[in-house]
Prior knowledge:
Layout: H1 3-16, E1 23-26, H2 32-46, E2 58-62, H3 89-96, E3 100-105, H4 143-150, E4 156-161, H5 167-173, E5 176-179, E6 199-204, H6 207-217, H7 230-236, E7 246-250, H8 260-275, E8 279-283, H9 288-306, H10 334-342, H11 345-357, H12 367-384, H13 397-405, E9 409-413, H14 423-426, H15 434-439, H16 445-450, E10 454-460, E11 473-480, H17 485-496
Helix pairs in contact: 1-2, 6-17, 9-11, 9-12, 12-13
Active site: 62 (charge relay system), 141 (charge relay system), 165 (acyl-ester intermediate)
Subcellular location: Mitochondrion
EC number: 6.3.5.7
Amino acid sequence: MSLLLEAERYVANQSSHLALNAFITPLPRRSSRWQDQVKHADLRRAQGKQKSRLDGRLIAFKDNICTRDLPTTCASKTLETFTSPFNATVVQQLEDAGAIVAGKTNLDEFGMGSHSIHSRFGPVKSAHCGRDSDNLSAGGSSGGSAVAVATDQCYAALGTDTGGSVRLPAAYTGIVGFKPSYGLLSRWGVVAYANSLDTVGIMAKETSTVRDVFGILNQYDSRDPTSHPPSSRSRISHRLKSTPLRIGVPLEYNISELAPSVRRSWYRSLEYMRQQGHTIQLVSLPMTKSALSAYYILAPAEASSNLAKYDGVRYGTRFEGRDGDGDNKSEGYLYAKTRGEGFGSEVKRRIMLGAFSLSAQAIDNYFIQAQRIRRLVRHDFDAVFRAENPLTAHALDIEHQAREVGVDVLICPTAPSPPPRISELTNANATKSSLDAYVSDVFTVPASLAGLPAISVPVSGRENVYSHDDEDLAGIQIIGQYGDDDLVLNVGELLQGNGL
C-alpha cells in the first residue's frame, strides 16, 4: 500500500470514529498540506531515499505536547486559546524524520487521571475488541492516543507517562505502550505535570513500531535539564545481556484483587518464556505496597507548584474579576475566579492535596516521607536486578551481591483488572470513587518512581487468541533495569510476536 493511501485511510478513520472522542484537534481531511507531505515521502521511498522508517507516517500527539501548527489545550479551559510558537523537541525530531502530525489527542486535564474522563472536551471512549465497548474506559491519561492507535486513526502516537499514563491505556485498549527510562527522551515543550516523574511514552500496535519511534527520539537535548548528556548515555548503552534470561516474578504483584483473566494472561506469559528456555525466579519488592501512597503525595505536590503559574495574569485564559478589595463581592477575585473556573475538579483536588503536603505543618510527615519511600522503591529494584544501575553503581554493597543472583527483567500485569465502564466512573450512581481510579495505577507506579523502562503488551488469557472477547486480553508489563530499554523492547516483542 502506498503511504498516501495509508494516510488517507487513517484520516478517514478519524472522521468515522468521532464518537470515541480520541482527538481534540484531528487532522483536517481536505487539507492539501499533509497530502503533499505524504506524496513527497512516497516519492522518496520509491527512490530509496527515505528519511527514516517513519517517513510519511501519521503520528498523533497527546494534547499536552506543544505543536506549532495545532493548538495545545491540555484538555483544560485554562489553555483553550493557547497555540505554541514552537514544536516540542519530540515533535520536531519526528517531523525531521519525515513523520506527519496526525492531530492532537484527548486526555485527562493536564494528564491528571487514570481513565481519560476528566477532559474539558468530554471522556474518551474505548473501542477495544468491538463488544459494546464504547462504554469502556480507555485508561488515562493518554487515553486519546491509545484509542487513536487501536482504531487505526494514526500509525503511532506519543503520550506522557507520569505514573502509568501510557501503559494503563495500552493495557485497556489492547495495544503496546512503552515508557522509556527517565531522562532519555526530551521533555522540552511538554507541559509539565510532575517534573521528576514525567516521561514521554510511545504507543503503537506493534513493538517493532515503538522501537522505530524510540530510536529517533532517544537523543540528548540541551534544552531539557533532565535529559541525560552523552557522558551518561555512554554508561547506559552497549551493556552485555545474558542468554537465557532470568525472568523475575514479583510476589507483591500477586494480589487477591487480581482479575482471573489478568492472572491467566500473566501465567501464559511466564509459561511461554519458560518454554523458550528462560529461567523464572520469584523476587520480592517489599516497598511496592507503599509506592502508590508515595506517588499520590509526590505527583500532586509537584503539580501544585507547576500549575501555580496559570493565574490569568502571566499564563492561561483569564476569567475576569476584581484584582483587589471592592464593594461588589459577587465579582470574585481575578486569581481565585481564574483558577476556580479554569481548572476541572480532579486538577483542583490534586492541587489542594499537593499544597497541603508541601505546607510547613505537613511537609515532614508527608512529602519528606514519600521521598524516602521513593528511594527505598528504587533500592528494591536495584537489589533484584542482575545488572547494576548505571546511575548509582557501586553505591551499596547489596547491589553488588545482587549481581550474582539477580534477574534481567520483571514480568507482571499492567493493571489488576479489565477496563471498567465509564458509567461506573462518571454517573450520579457511579460505583467507583476517585480512590478506585487511583488504585488502577498500583502496578505501574513503582517503575515510574524508580525511573525504569517498562512496556505493556497485549496477551490473551486463552490458547485460542482468535476467539477472545474484551476480558480475555490483558496488558502484561515488562520492567527492566535503568537503561535496559532495548532489552525491555526485545522481551515485549518476543511475547507479542508469538501468538500470545
